[in-house]
Amino acid sequence: MGFIDEIKEKARADRKTIVLPESMDKRTFEAAEKILKEGIANIVLIGTPEEIEKNGEGFDLSGAQIVDPFNDPNKQKYIDKFVELRANKGVTPEIAKETMEQDYMFYACLMCKCGDADGVVSGACHSTGNTIRPALQLLKTKPGIKSVSGFFLMEVPDCDLGEHGLFVMADCAVNVDFDSEKLAEIAALSAESFRSFVGAEPKVAMLSYSTKGSAKHDDVTKVTEAVRIAHEKYPDIKIDGELQLDAALVQTVAELKAPGSEVAGNANTLVFPSLEAGNIGYKLVQRLAKANAYGPVLQGLAMPVNDLSRGCYADDIVGVVAMTAVQAQQQ
Ligand code: ACO
Predict the structure, then answer these.
(1) Ligand 1 proximity of 175 Cβ (cutoff 6 Å)
(2) C-alpha dihedral over 177, 178, 179, 180, to 10 degrees?
(3) Which of 142, 205, 301, 304 is the Cys-Cys partner for 248 at CB 3.0 to 4.6 Å?
(4) Ligand 1 binding pocket includes 157 (Cβ within 6 Å)
């Protein structure tokens, strides 16, 4: 069974309610039909009767809950919650109502915040920033977590590296700037994500262009300092660095460059030193190795919200919904 089939199986075992707010896109409805048919999650679609009729035509949505944001008996509850959470940022009842009606992502996050849904998947026709921002503003981070980050679960075919070709790579999607403290937190969150999705022990490599002092630069120091913080804060997680990618993955290189490391040569969780490196790195693996790239999956949010690529297919939405449902089971 492939990775995503196992995740669907897990999702089916304890069915969660996931909101799909992009009723302006036919892929949403195609995915909803498949999710309901396969019993992966309960689905809430947000849209006006016109939007649902226009884009959902021909799909069997009989098991879905449809919420019309202009005519929903729960709407006042969501407006009140929005104002309660954001009055200090100038949100009035009028602004709340208008924002929710214009951007259904806010509506979806408020449904989660009020306990009417367990997670959200969006981004087939919205940028990553516009998908993530409402979640950051309304749902916030898990207790004790400072920053949300985004990982990809990479499934590399015919690969004996990592966990039989499975890797978590982060941060590939969210944080534009990171310092050592944030990098250490990303390492811990990524380790937790690897454990919960792959079910094996994470071995976290903190990547750099230097291995164990082979180069000297502030960029390298940022990573070595992150490793020091991570060892201090998360002593139970296997983390090592700074490591070059080959030293992280390949035994023979690890023996030369980082002898004695329990991570080098065996890494399955790769933490990149910048968003450029992470975003370019996962796409290289996806395109050149023809790997499946599941994500970006957000880690560190108080409730699961996940983004889609704008080039996604309905099947990709189904996969991300299954992952979101599994995250919701673990909340
Ligand atoms: N973790 C937790 N909270 C955060 C984070 C974070 N990483 N970033 C911002 N926030 C919070 C802020 O504290 C703020 O909270 P507040 O309003 O209660 O004070 C709120 O989110 C909004 O913050 P802003 O700084 O106004 O939001 P910004 O406009 O910077 O958006 C975002 C944040 C969307 C994550 C931005 O950093 C971004 O666009 N990142 C890059 C996304 C991207 O383009 N990725 C690459 C493409 S993805 C791909 O290829 C798969």
Answers:
(1) yes
(2) -170
(3) 205
(4) no
Q: Kindly give the parts of the chain with pLDDT less than 50.
A: none
Closest C-alpha to ligand 1, atom 21 = 136
pLDDT by residue (tens digit) across 112-148? 999 999 999 999 999 989 999 999 999 999 999 999 9
Q: Kindly report the backbone phi and psi dihedral angles of residue 112, in degrees, each rounded to the nearest multiple of 5, phi listed first.
A: -65, -45
> Could you tell me if 297 and 170 are in contact, meaning their C-beta atoms sit under 8 angstroms apart?
no
pLDDT, one tens digit per residue, over 159-171 is 999 999 999 999 9
CA torsion through residues 105, 111, 113, 119, sign: negative
| pTM exceeds 0.70 | yes
Q: Which segments within the chain are labelled E, that is strand?
A: 17-20, 42-46, 65-67, 119-122, 149-155, 166-170, 203-207, 238-243, 269-271, 292-299, 305-307
pLDDT at residue 163, rounded to an integer: 96
Q: Find, among 253, 110, 259, 271, the residue nearest to 203 by Cα.
A: 271
DSSP string, 283-311: HHHHHHTT-EEEEEEEESBSS-EEE--TT
Report how far residue 82's alpha carbon sits from residue 204's, in angstroms, rounded to the nearest whole number.
38
Looking up tokens 């981070």 gives 141
Q: How far is CA 171 from the centre of its chain?
A: 10
> Hey, what are 37's tokens?
């048919």
Residue to substitute in 126, 136, 307 for testing ligand 1 pocket (most ligand atoms within 8 angstroms of CB): 136
* Residue 32 burial by Cβ neighbours in a 10 Å radius (0-12, 13-18, 19+): buried
- List, in order of start, the domains of the chain with CATH numbers: 3-140+303-329 (3.40.50.10950), 149-288 (3.40.50.10750)
The whole-angstrom separation of Cα 250 and Cα 260 is: 14
